[in-house]
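Weekly structure sync, notes
Attendees: PL (lead), two postdocs, one rotation student
Agenda item 3: pending single-chain targets
PL asked that the sequence for the first pending target be pasted directly into the notes so everyone works from the same version. It is reproduced below exactly as submitted, 304 residues in total.
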Amino acid sequence: MSIDLVVPEEVELKSLLDELRKLSWASADVLMAYARGEEPPYGFPKSLTVEAGGDGPVSAADMAVNELLISGLKHNLTFKEWDILSEETSKEQTFQRDKYKKDWCWILDPLDGTKDFLQGSENYAVHIALTYKQKPKIGIVLIPEKNELWFGIIGIGAWFENRDGSKKHFSFSERRDISKLVLVSSKNHQQAILQNLLSTLCFAETKKIGSVGCKVASILRGEADVYISLSGKTSPKDWDMAAPHALIEAAGGKFTHADGTNLIYQKSNYCQSGCLIASHGIAHQKICQKTLEFFSLEEANYIV
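Predicted structure, written out during the meeting:
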């Protein structure tokens, strides 16, 4: 295997990244057209219909980008021995969980932050991740409205590019003390126990952003330092976390369960339950320790 197992040995990394760039910016064109009420490219329907899904709304934009990404990965890449797991295809009646067991797997979220997208917010993203034996290896987060395409390759590094191909370097903040850290939190998912935890941790400031990919990008820009996910009635899924996870870990940050254990993908239910913490890494261990202390008194069953 090449490049310390970030791609199969039959795959040339540079060519793969070039193809992913094309697919990502094509996805940006589709989403921004829908966001502006314009005619979407590539023959997709203009009507932005919205349906209620099991974990939230599904729009024509989700489905269009889903089709674009899966078609590109299937037809434009010569290597075929990998699975393609997508949020949208997982909702289809013909979806069979036991089929997705190959070592290499693409995990896609065609539109992370659908509620934000439908509300007219710019904080939506496309997630593309490649995993190997249930661990993330490559993470791509596209933020169309910011003209940012983020790449994270485990063992190699992280960066972002503009549409013109100019490469930009990220910069974590240098904030170290928990009391000075900036939390990035969800706009549409709030619950009492999470609020109690955050009150205990006493971060300096909270910024509210929808998409997980946008949250992690804000940490890489130095605008925030930590993100905490806590399962409520539903749990985040693999497609919510895989690409942001690979991105922040490739950059030198951390994304773990509150007890410090790693996130594992392609489990039977594709859920990432419990308390998950992503950070720039400087105070990660302290945040995890204080979180565990909180749950030892309050809700230990949330830690998995």
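Discussion points:
- Residues 181 and 203 are 5 Å apart (CA to CA).
- The first strand starts at residue 50 and ends at 53.
Action: rotation student to compare against the earlier draft before next sync.
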